[in-house]
Amino acid sequence: MTFSEETYRFMYxxxxxxxxxxxxxxxxxxxVVVYKNKIIGRGYNQVEMLKDPxxxxxxxxxxxxANFLNNWRLNECDLYVTMEPCVMCxxxxxxxxxxxxxxxxxxxKSGACGSVFNLCEEKKLNHKVNVYSGIYSxxxxxxLKEFFKNLxxxxxxxxxx
Length: 161
Known about the structure:
Elements lengths: L4 H19 L6 E6 L2 E7 L2 H4 L6 H13 L7 E7 L3 H10 L3 E6 L24 E4 L3 H20 L5
Parallel strand pairs: 3-4, 4-5
Antiparallel strand pairs: 1-2, 1-3
Helix pairs in contact: 1-5
């Protein structure tokens, strides 16, 4: 599938957010929320730093976007994220009524938008999110590989943090 230049530009912005996570030793996932061709919410994983299991990139970006619009309904917004959202984040996308989801790589262990589950396209729910994948997948995969390689090195050196 071919995507627009804007789609690549916004996914690149999500990749930049993921790099921020990598820099602070978080799983490198980044997200941006786009409204009328403008980024209104940004986020990267901060679970370890904030000691908060809900501090996923998507959740942070959605909160920022809702604050920007002063509205929890983000039905005219799209989310770009470097890894397939988990169940919690997919639920937030549905609750916020995100229009389109674009992500880079599938998460075969906990993905909820086509891998393990497919909540975004579940017909029983009150909202359906259009899902597109594969944008900058190699770049996102490389960040994840670098993170887990460094984590294995840290663990082998006896550093559990």
